[in-house]
Write a structure and sequence with these properties.
alpha+beta, Aminopeptidase, OB fold (Dihydrolipoamide Acetyltransferase, E2P), 4-stranded antiparallel beta sheet, 11 helices, 28% strand, binds zinc ion, metal ion binding, transmembrane helix
């Protein structure tokens, strides 16, 4: 690995942020058509003792503002007592998209496919370079907050390159129940920063254009858990009831056009061969069921109940020890944060019981006697097999 160009994490605009101090900084990334500077606001907090530097970024996709709510919560959290190191908080990375309520930049480029960027490239590439030099270039670790793409929602999950010890440490300590293995797409912030020596964890949860209370709570808890792991705060971590390392995922796609009835919500677990959704015509006839090709957990799903062939319906992550997870989950009280986030996310989709015939299907008969829509499509099993993944 090449030696990284590092900038001192406590010096901004040529001035030092002293131990125990916080500072608001404006990072210029571009200029408007009228020649006015376009800055990204950054909040820097320095602990009393030396320690690692970690960044938390949000809205790298300009419409994914759940993370912006998280960062704002971290800024004003009076209980967050940073004892060591430096915390860099960036509420909105893609200010261009954010100003237009859009995922992309005005030139339709995806900023999260432009890292590490270049000085002479496109608007996206130049913006990426500033972020890479000024934020990643000052950090030892990073957490990048995302949501599902438009018309979808995600149950809170983290994604990291588990072959990288630092990224694995971040993922495990964050404390999400669902952890997904993956380096991320080419030229994404996560992949490029981790490759350059600054391990980055991706957090995916909820929907675009919203700040969802239980998502914010899960993310704030996760960031604090990581800060404790890095010995930057003293507040003890909140342990998750279980943690699943998901190595195989699949988007279950519609085979017919029509109206969807969901039989699972975000975060639900489903046994192989059991129905996850039914597609029927607008009068409720000619129904066709989608079944789970393996024992799995619903990582994400569409929130739009109208569908057509090939459209993604449910993003399922494979679970190997289903019985154990079922046992733990059945014991969780309704007031548990895991159950609260499950209930909150289920409120944006209508989940119904499958019909008696559908419910009686078991894995055996479903796989031998009738076609399984989900299993019939042979495609690469990876987190990024859909182009608009988070
Ligand atoms: Zn995203």
């Amino acid at each position: 690995m090449k030696k990284r160009k590092r900038k001192p994490s406590s010096i901004w605009d040529g001035e030092e942020v002293l131990p125990g101090e916080s500072r608001r900084v404006q990072l210029n990334v571009s200029e408007s058509y009228s020649g006015v500077n376009i800055p990204i606001p950054v909040y820097v907090r320095r602990g009393l003792r030396d320690g690692p530097t970690i960044f938390v970024t949000a809205a790298l996709h300009g419409d994914e503002i759940n993370g912006t709510g998280v960062v704002r919560e971290l800024i004003r959290d009076g209980t967050l007592n940073l004892t060591a190191g430096v915390l860099i908080l960036v509420p909105v990375v893609n200010v261009f998209g954010f100003d237009r309520h859009m995922r992309y930049l005005p030139d339709r480029r995806d900023l999260n496919r432009c890292f590490p960027g270049s000085e002479r490239g496109s608007l996206a590439s130049r913006t990426a370079r500033v972020i890479f030099e000024e934020i990643i270039g000052r950090s030892d670790f990073g957490i990048d907050l995302h949501t599902a793409a438009a018309r979808r929602t995600n149950f809170p999950n983290v994604r990291a390159d588990f072959r990288n010890a630092g990224a694995k440490r971040l993922a495990e300590s964050f404390g999400c129940e669902l952890m997904m293995v993956g380096r991320g797409p080419d030229r994404s912030l996560r992949r490029e920063a981790t490759g350059a020596g600054c391990p980055v964890l991706l957090f995916e949860a909820g929907e675009i254009w919203k700040v969802e209370p239980s998502i914010v709570a899960a993310a704030v808890r996760g960031v604090k858990n990581v800060l404790f792991e890095l010995k930057m705060i003293d507040e003890p971590p909140v342990e998750p009831p279980y943690q699943l390392l998901i190595e195989r995922t699949k988007w279950i796609r519609a085979e017919r056009g029509g109206f969807l009835e969901f039989h699972v919500g975000p975060g639900d677990i489903v046994l192989r061969g059991k129905p996850i959704a039914t597609i029927s015509d607008l009068l409720g006839e000619d129904s066709h069921s989608l079944v789970a090709p393996f024992d799995g957990v619903v990582i994400g799903m569409t929130t739009l109940p109208a569908t057509s062939p090939g459209e993604p319906v449910v993003h399922l992550g494979e679970i190997e020890k289903m019985k154990r997870i079922e046992r733990i989950r059945n014991k969780l009280p309704e007031s548990h944060p895991h159950e609260r986030v499950t209930a909150d996310l289920a409120s944006s989709v209508m989940v119904t019981e499958p019909s008696v015939e559908e419910a009686e299907q078991d894995g055996e008969s479903a796989s031998t006697d009738q076609p399984i829509d989900g299993a019939a499509t042979q495609e690469a099993l990876s987190e990024d097999n859909d182009s608009r993944t988070g």
